[in-house]
């Protein structure tokens, strides 16, 4: 009966929480995930399925088409930088244009740190990319929009090491 | 040693994974790495713990399971060094989630770190808490977070603000503690604190009306001033984006103002000036500026009416709509959708542009535009709009056709000014996109056709023509086959010619050709073929000259592997061969289908349909509506317990005519429900008590000759008289049996699985009973209606029911009907549970329950285990 106790609370309704940003994904041209941060819980299988579906949808679109794709009950705002796609899943009432601008801010921040950021920088410094994103987004909301404020703690880390 | 600079082995692993050419190679590398990491974990290796975790994060990102590393995160978090803690917290956020028990163990570490002297460590803990905090943790740690909202460093305050959002969403009761500290944040200068503070206030307003009132009264002026300062601020390099200072903060402020202004004229008035300024002064040639304008328009549309501002906003949207940038057009369409409710007239002005957007090459824009057109349609513009859309249907993308077809059908059905127009448009849609049309749509079409008696001839001829060009559209074929079966004679004799029609000559054998093509086409599905068989039977009586040919076609299906077709073929064949005398009365034209009942049922007003939404509420007598089995016969009456067909031809025929078709696999569950529906349909078909039933052609009258003078009181009476009047007494008994199954309280053995209710829990103060039902076609899932009855003389408040089940079960709880349980006799609480049993048939259900409530403010907790579930659930 251990399992029964272990499962306690599973059935307790988890309210649908509107949270703005649901996830941030970075995916390369081949569709391989290079960074993923989710702000709502999905199981591993759900994540794989979701990433597969939206990457297929977004990568099939051309430059002229708009940067928003509706998927299930939310939207993907995406932007392409060289070989890397930045995909942000947001609730329907989020300001799509602002998210587009936010992606650019994220890329500029990474640029400032890595110097012309590329896919490999993110792959080999995954934890740093995560730290940067963490300084910018928390629980699906934007925390900070100043590049130097975002990077200060990270640079501090580099210095002390 | 620093975990980030000593990542050589991490690098090696990433290189190795990148070098993999196939997925299998990658899996092998990952498996080897995971094995090494597990070994390291078992040896409690301290030095490489952080590196192992970094590797696990990478492996996790690739989509491999990494649960075995979870405890490592906790160990790292508990270690004293900042670098270890940092990667530990990152791992915690990525690898764990709020639902895992491991999380309980981290609460203590979090509490210590929130009180740490190093502010960076406090920041880490806040960030982690903000991302993964559960309700329990929220209660435990809320005081710390509240305190940190006043911390000296703004970087901590901003994180504490977002953490507070998580806490109040998890535990809304805590909201009031945060109102004062949150409003204090609105007076800050630091952008990070401001943006998070504004966000916190927005969420507080959504959760608590008290907070909304407070913030509206105390902070609106301040927020307007902040926005004004921001909009007029000089260039600040740190926050500048395309010449605008911090557009993100602009947007957050506008969002909060929207919440405050909605439904409050005074607050709306306060913000008018600044909104006008933002709407007119913001640069609109860059994304950032447009993002602000977009948000501003949304706020103007939501707050209390100010005519001038609305005009300004609609003009901005007009400008957006004609922008060349697709992103801007997309948001314009999105926004116009919301503007429709505020000012439909202004949106109508852009109708032509919007209609163009429906034809855009970009799927996202098309979808938005279509939704918008859909809400813009009304009685006056339906004709031109429907024409545009239907014309576009011909050239639209295949993956867009489904949506487009559904919308067109809905528009046409909702606003059609006259029946002939409706039928014309529907035929066009069926011709172009018949394969995309949903079942309800063509059922509805048939109901309308059946009711438009003066258009029968016109319709069947139009369908015949359409069939000649679009025989591959399944639902067109079905409607055509049905109409030819019913009105085939009108097709041949040009009955009811309208002035607008071109005359055509169709011979009897041409009409049979159509049905023959339909039945012999390989792509036709069971429904179509079965409908075609019925049509053939009807035609055999209408066209005596083709009777022999029809019999030959029917005979070919006597060998069909599909039981349903085989049975029909055999029965129809014997009708044609042996029962000439009654054939013509048997295959009379269908009585007019009752439109009102159909529409009512479609709206879900049927009591049965309301409680079990999975059973389609539409089922037409002609047809083919059944949740599980693909087929319903003439009368759509089905029950899962069949009396064996007897050898007597008359009895067979009667059963078949009544459409008592009993596919073996259908409806094992939910039979009670289904038979209710069946009963209803029967009523409907016989149109008992319905004034619209024409007395000459109704099946009631044909068969109940002995009671033709009075309106039958119940369908049972009627049907029994019907079985008698055909003179096949040998079959009366099974017939009655069958009808018994339709009675309001069916005997259980006729209805397969109907489970007895159980008393799941009973104490001196409370009784809990479970009622069970199954959803058809889904034997694994049981729907339980739990009813709580208060056995004491006190009212229970804050009543919460929780349940837990073992791993092989999945439990879903719907919200309870109330959280207050009055004393016995004054009401009860009901709550629906849905359980899916992955070991259905092997293991029985079992559940542990916990019921918490307050008696006069005193907490009471009752727990128990439910073991007495009926077997086989």
UniProtKB/TrEMBL annotation, chain A:
Q: What is its main location?
A: membrane
The cellular component terms of Gene Ontology attached to this UniProt record, alphabetical and capped at eight, are: cytoplasm; endomembrane system
Q: Where in the cell is it found?
A: Endomembrane system
Q: Which UniProt keywords apply?
A: Membrane, Protein transport, Transport
Q: Where is the AP complex mu/sigma subunit domain?
A: 21-160
Q: Which GO terms describe its biological process?
A: intracellular protein transport
InterPro entries recorded for this chain?
A: AP_complex_ssu (IPR016635), AP_mu_sigma_su (IPR022775), Longin-like_dom_sf (IPR011012)
Which branch of life, at top level?
Eukaryota
Gene3D superfamilies attached to this UniProt entry: 3.30.450.60
Q: Which SUPFAM superfamilies match?
A: SNARE-like
Q: Which family does it belong to?
A: Belongs to the adaptor complexes small subunit family.
Name listed for the protein in its UniProt record: AP complex subunit sigma
Q: What species was this sequence derived from?
A: Flemingia macrophylla
**From which lineage does this chain's organism come?**
Eukaryota, Viridiplantae, Streptophyta, Embryophyta, Tracheophyta
From TrEMBL, chain B:
Q: Which Gene3D superfamilies match?
A: 2.60.40.1230, Leucine-rich Repeat Variant (1.25.10.10)
GAE domain residues are 753-870
Output the Gene Ontology cellular-component terms: clathrin-coated vesicle membrane; Golgi apparatus
Q: What does this protein do?
A: Subunit of clathrin-associated adaptor protein complex 1 that plays a role in protein sorting at the trans-Golgi network and early endosomes (TGN/EE). The AP complexes mediate both the recruitment of clathrin to membranes and the recognition of sorting signals within the cytosolic tails of transmembrane cargo molecules.
Annotated region (Disordered) at 639-676, 697-718
Q: A Gene Ontology biological process annotation?
A: intracellular protein transport
Q: Where is the composition biased (Low complexity)?
A: 653-664
UniProt cross-references to Pfam families, sorted A to Z:
Adaptin_N (PF01602), Alpha_adaptinC2 (PF02883)
User: Where does this polypeptide localize?
Assistant: Cytoplasmic vesicle, Clathrin-coated vesicle membrane; Golgi apparatus
Could you tell me the membrane topology recorded for this protein? Peripheral membrane protein
Per UniProt, the keywords (alphabetical) are: Cytoplasmic vesicle, Golgi apparatus, Membrane, Protein transport, Transport
In Swiss-Prot or TrEMBL terms, this protein is called AP-1 complex subunit gamma
Per the record, the similarity remark reads:
Belongs to the adaptor complexes large subunit family.
Output the InterPro entries linked to this UniProt entry: Adaptor_Complx_Large_Subunit (IPR050840), AP1_complex_gsu (IPR017107), ARM-like (IPR011989), ARM-type_fold (IPR016024), Clathrin/coatomer_adapt-like_N (IPR002553), Clathrin_a/b/g-adaptin_app_Ig (IPR008152), Clathrin_app_Ig-like_sf (IPR013041), GAE_dom (IPR008153)
Query: Locations of Polar residues compositional bias?
Result: 665-676
Q: SUPFAM superfamilies from the entry?
A: ARM repeat, Clathrin adaptor appendage domain
């Amino acid at each position: 009966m251990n399992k029964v106790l272990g499962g306690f609370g599973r059935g307790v309704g988890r309210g649908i929480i509107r949270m703005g940003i649901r996830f941030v994904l970075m995916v390369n041209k081949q569709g391989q995930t290079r960074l993923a941060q989710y702000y709502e819980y999905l199981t591993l299988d759900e994540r794989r399925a979701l990433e597969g579906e939206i990457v297929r949808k977004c990568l099939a679109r051309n430059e002229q088409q708009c940067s928003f794709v509706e998927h299930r009950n939310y939207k993907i705002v995406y932007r392409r930088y060289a070989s890397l796609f930045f995909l942000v899943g947001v609730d329907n009432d989020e300001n799509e244009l602002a998210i587009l601008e936010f992606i650019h801010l994220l890329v500029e921040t990474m640029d400032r740190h890595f110097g012309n950021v590329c896919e490999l920088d993110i792959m080999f410094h995954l934890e740093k990319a995560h730290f940067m994103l963490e300084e910018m987004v928390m629980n699906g909301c934007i925390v900070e929009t100043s590049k130097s404020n975002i990077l200060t703690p990270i640079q501090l880390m580099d210095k002390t090491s | 040693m620093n975990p980030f600079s000593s990542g050589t082995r991490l690098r090696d692993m990433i290189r190795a994974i990148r070098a993999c050419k196939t997925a299998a190679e990658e899996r092998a590398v990952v498996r080897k790495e995971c094995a090494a990491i597990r070994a390291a974990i078992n040896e409690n290796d301290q030095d490489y713990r952080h590196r192992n975790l970094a590797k696990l994060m990478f492996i996790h990102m690739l989509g491999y399971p990494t649960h075995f590393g979870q405890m490592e995160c906790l160990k790292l978090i508990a270690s004293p060094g900042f670098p270890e803690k940092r990667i530990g917290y990152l791992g915690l956020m990525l690898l764990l989630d709020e639902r895992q028990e491991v999380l309980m163990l981290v609460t203590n570490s979090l509490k210590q770190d929130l009180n740490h002297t190093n502010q960076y460590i406090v920041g880490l803990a806040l960030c982690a808490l903000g991302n993964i905090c559960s309700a329990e943790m929220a209660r435990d740690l809320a005081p710390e977070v509240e305190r940190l909202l006043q911390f000296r460093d703004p970087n901590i305050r901003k994180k504490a603000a977002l953490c507070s959002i998580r806490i109040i969403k998890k535990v809304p009761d805590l909201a009031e503690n945060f109102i004062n500290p949150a409003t204090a944040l609105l007076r800050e200068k630091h952008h990070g604190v401001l943006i998070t503070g504004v966000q916190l206030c927005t969420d507080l307003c959504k959760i608590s009306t008290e907070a909304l009132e407070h913030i509206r009264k105390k902070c609106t002026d301040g927020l307007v001033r902040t926005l004004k300062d921001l909009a007029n601020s000089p260039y600040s390099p740190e926050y500048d984006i395309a010449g605008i200072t911090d557009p993100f903060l602009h947007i957050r402020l506008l969002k909060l103002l929207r919440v405050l202004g909605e439904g409050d004229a005074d607050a709306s008035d306060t913000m008018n000036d600044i909104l006008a300024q933002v709407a007119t002064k913001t640069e609109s040639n860059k994304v950032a500026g447009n993002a602000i304008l977009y948000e501003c328009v949304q706020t103007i549309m939501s707050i209390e009416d100010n005519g001038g501002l609305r005009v300004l906003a609609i003009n901005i949207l007009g400008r957006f709509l004609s922008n060349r940038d697709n992103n801007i057009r997309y948001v314009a369409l999105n926004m116009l959708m919301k503007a429709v409710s505020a000012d439909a007239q202004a949106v109508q002005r852009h109708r032509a542009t919007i209609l163009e957007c429906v034809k855009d090459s970009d799927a996202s824009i098309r979808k938005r535009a279509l939704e918008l057109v859909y809400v813009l349609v009304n009685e006056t513009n339906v004709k031109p709009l429907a024409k545009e859309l239907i014309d576009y249907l011909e050239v639209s993308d295949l993956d867009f056709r489904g949506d487009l077809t559904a919308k067109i059908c809905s528009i046409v059905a909702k606003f059609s000014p006259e029946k002939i127009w409706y039928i014309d448009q529907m035929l066009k849609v069926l011709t172009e996109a018949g394969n995309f049309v949903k079942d309800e749509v063509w059922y509805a079409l048939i109901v309308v056709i059946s009711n438009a008696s003066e258009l029968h001839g016109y319709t069947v001829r139009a369908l015949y023509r359409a069939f000649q060009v679009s025989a591959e559209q399944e639902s067109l074929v079905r409607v055509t086959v049905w109409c030819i079966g019913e009105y085939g004679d009108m097709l041949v004799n040009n009955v009811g010619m309208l002035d607008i029609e071109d005359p055509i000559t169709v011979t009897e054998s041409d009409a049979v050709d159509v049905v023959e093509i339909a039945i012999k086409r390989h792509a036709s599905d069971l429904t179509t073929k079965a409908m075609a068989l019925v049509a053939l039977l009807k035609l055999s009586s209408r066209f005596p000259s083709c009777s022999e040919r029809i019999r030959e076609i029917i005979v070919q299906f006597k060998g069909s592997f599909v039981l349903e077709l085989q049975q029909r073929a055999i029965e129809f064949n014997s009708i044609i061969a042996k029962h000439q005398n009654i054939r013509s009365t048997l295959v009379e034209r269908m009585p007019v289908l009752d439109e009102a009942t159909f529409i009512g049922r479609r709206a879900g007003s049927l009591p049965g349909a309301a409680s079990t939404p999975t059973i389609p509420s539409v089922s037409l007598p002609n047809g083919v509506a059944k949740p599980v089995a693909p087929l319903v016969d003439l009368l759509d009456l089905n029950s899962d317990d069949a009396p064996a067909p007897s050898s007597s031809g008359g009895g067979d025929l009667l059963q078949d005519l009544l459409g008592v078709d009993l596919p073996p696999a259908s409806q094992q569950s939910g039979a009670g429900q289904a038979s209710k529906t069946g009963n209803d349909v029967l009523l409907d078909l016989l149109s008992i008590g319905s004034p619209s039933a024409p007395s000459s052609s109704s099946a009631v009258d044909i068969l109940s000759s002995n009671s033709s003078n009075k309106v039958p009181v119940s369908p049972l009476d009627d049907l029994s008289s019907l079985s008698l009047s055909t003179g096949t007494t040998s079959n009366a008994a099974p017939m009655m049996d069958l009808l018994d199954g339709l009675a309001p309280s069916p005997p259980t053995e006729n209805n397969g699985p109907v489970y007895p209710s159980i008393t799941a829990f009973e104490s001196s103060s409370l009784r809990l009973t479970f009622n069970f039902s199954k959803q058809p076609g889904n034997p694994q899932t049981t729907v339980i209606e739990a009813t709580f009855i208060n056995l004491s003389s006190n009212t229970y408040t804050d009543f919460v029911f929780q349940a837990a089940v073992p791993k092989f079960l999945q439990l879903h709880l719907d919200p309870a009907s109330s959280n207050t349980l009055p004393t016995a006799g004054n009401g009860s609480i009901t709550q629906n549970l849905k359980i899916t049993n992955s070991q259905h048939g092997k293991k029985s259900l079992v559940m542990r329950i916990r019921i918490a409530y307050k008696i006069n403010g005193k907490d009471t907790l009752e727990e128990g285990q439910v073991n007495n579930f009926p077997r086989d659930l």
